[in-house]
Automatic annotation (TrEMBL):
Source species of the chain: Taxus chinensis (Chinese yew)
Record-annotated AB hydrolase-1 domain positions: 173-488
Coiled-coil features, chain-numbered ranges: none
GO molecular function: catalytic activity
Top-level division of the source organism's lineage: Eukaryota
One GO cellular component term noted in the UniProt record for this chain: chloroplast envelope
Protein name as it appears in the record: AB hydrolase-1 domain-containing protein
InterPro entries: AB_hydrolase_1, AB_hydrolase_fold, Epox_hydrolase-like
Length: 491
């Protein structure tokens, strides 16, 4: 290094190349030692402002020597001057702030989340229902026929190709499964509208797609229905029938969407024309029984009828027996009430604990980790041949990860699904399947790895008059993998 010289500042002699000493700047010394690990720094020129007691360092005054000093440390991993420091306008040099590491989930940058409305497609539509903006798309057969007819007339062509019988004339509402969106119906929406000769509507259920995410209070109490509950999806489905200005509609559900379709039927059976259940995520009953009420036992109050004769009053043993029976009945009721109250308390405690866990920051981090690691793989695994999944399909499923609050909404949906508050007081769905009286078609792929084909077949057998169809070389998504065959099966 060059020879060290000295220069006098006021009454203080300072050696050029050494560190400033108090009262000039103690902080600079710690900066240099922590960053460069050297004791001597040669400075080309130093200026002193004695009034402010602050060093003013000209630009680039440290650059050459500091880099040389870092090199003398034998490549200790210390970065260059430009990488580690920044110079303020007043000449003061400070260490650079570390850039925040970008976080991505399934390839989607989580630092640039936007409102779902900003991700809408040109054909996207939104309708407000109970404070939730439901994203949906509509395929209108009549408008397409009118456009085609007008085009044919302009070209002087007459054709009967589009004159399909519109004897059905009933709209269809398409309900996607868990983790899916309107995108999953993209390839069959227009063909289905053409098939039924009416409108086909697909909408994003809350927590999925581009439907708005509603923040649930920490208390979990809402003035309206929980938008993430199955009850809300059922109400929204019936509301779409009203929006279509129709008395009935065909409900087409896929996977978990079949739960919404089936429950919507029991909510308003007169408004459901038919059910089409695709790869239904409904647990079929193990034993297919009959609706038989002949085994009911008449109540006779332990053999005592109301036509008691005077002999009862004259028989002391019978009186004792009646008193003991009443006492036993009272004790039994008391025990049953206590058990029910304890069960209710345990259920309430369970709900509170589960709510706290799923609404915690840890749960948010966990769901991000799961979606990042398994999200795209789950889509590929749903296909018959995972290697044939196009990139645009993966993009269609990961697009909603750009929405603000997607992870919290997914957790709220999971919480509502577990608690299942919408079906309290009702028997399980699998016990009510035998009561479905509308036409039912069950469709599945022969290699469905998520919902086995045997479960779909057993489900079809448990519904009176239901038809069962299997699409060969197809996985969990028949309407995406084999759209032509899917439409043909429905026809």
């Amino acid at each position: 290094m060059a020879a060290i010289t000295a220069q006098k500042f006021g009454s203080t002699m300072h050696k050029l190349g050494s560190f400033p000493i108090p009262p000039f700047s103690v902080r600079k010394r710690s900066i240099y030692r922590s960053i460069y690990g050297i004791k001597l720094v040669q400075i080309k020129s130093i200026y002193s402002n004695m009034e402010k007691r602050k060093w003013v360092v000209p630009k680039n005054s440290y650059r050459t020597v500091c880099n040389a000093g870092a090199a003398e440390l034998g490549g200790s991993g210390i970065g260059s001057f430009e990488e580690l420091t920044e110079q303020r306008l007043d000449g003061e040099i400070r260490p650079k702030k570390k850039k925040k590491k970008k976080v991505s989930v399934a390839g989607v940058d989580q630092d640039e989340l936007v409102d779902p409305l900003n991700l809408a497609d040109p054909d996207s539509l939104f309708v407000e229902f109970n404070g939730v903006h439901l994203h949906h798309k509509v395929a209108d057969f009549s408008s397409e026929i009118s456009a085609a007819s007008a085009s044919d007339l302009d070209n002087g062509v007459t054709t009967k190709e589009n004159s399909i019988s519109t004897s059905i004339g009933i709209p269809a509402i398409l309900l996607h499964g868990f983790g899916a969106t309107v995108f999953s119906w993209e390839r069959v929406l227009k063909p289905l509208a053409k098939l039924i000769g009416s409108k086909a509507v697909a909408f994003d259920r809350p927590a999925f797609g581009l439907t708005s995410r509603i923040e649930i209070p920490a208390t979990g109490k809402l003035s309206t229905m929980n938008p993430y509950s199955i009850g809300f999806s059922i109400a929204a489905t019936l509301n779409f029938i009203d929006l279509l200005q129709s008395q009935k509609a065909i409900l087409i559900g896929h996977s978990a969407g079949c739960l919404v379709a089936a429950n919507a039927y029991f909510e308003a059976p007169e408004r459901v024309a038919a059910l089409i259940l695709v790869a239904p995520a409904i647990v079929a009953p193990l034993v297919i029984g009959k609706n038989d009420n002949t085994n009911r036992i008449p109540s006779k109050r332990n053999g005592l009828d109301d036509n008691s004769t005077s002999e009862e009053g004259e028989n002391p043993f019978r009186k004792i027996r009646v008193m003991l029976f009443k006492l036993w009945t009272g004790v039994s009721r008391l025990v049953v009430n206590m058990v029910q109250e304890m069960k209710a308390m345990a259920n309430t405690l369970y709900r509170k604990i589960l709510s706290v866990i799923l609404r915690s920051n840890f749960a948010v981090m966990l769901v991000r980790l799961i979606m990042d690691k398994y999200g795209r793989e789950a889509v590929r695994n749903a296909w018959y041949d995972s290697k044939q999944v196009p990139d645009h399909v993966i993009h269609g499923y990961t697009k909603p990860l750009k929405c603000k609050g997607w992870e919290k909404a997914l957790l709220e949906f999971t919480l509502a699904m577990i608690l299942d508050s919408g079906s309290e007081g009702k028997p399980p769905l699998k016990k009510r399947l035998k009561d479905i009286s509308c036409p039912v078609l069950v469709v599945t792929g022969d290699t469905d790895r998520l919902v086995p084909a045997w479960n779909a077949e057993r489900l079809a057998n448990s519904i009176p008059g239901a038809k069962f169809e299997v699409i060969k070389n197809c996985g969990h998504l028949p309407h995406e993998e084999k759209p032509e065959e899917f439409v043909a099966v429905i026809q």
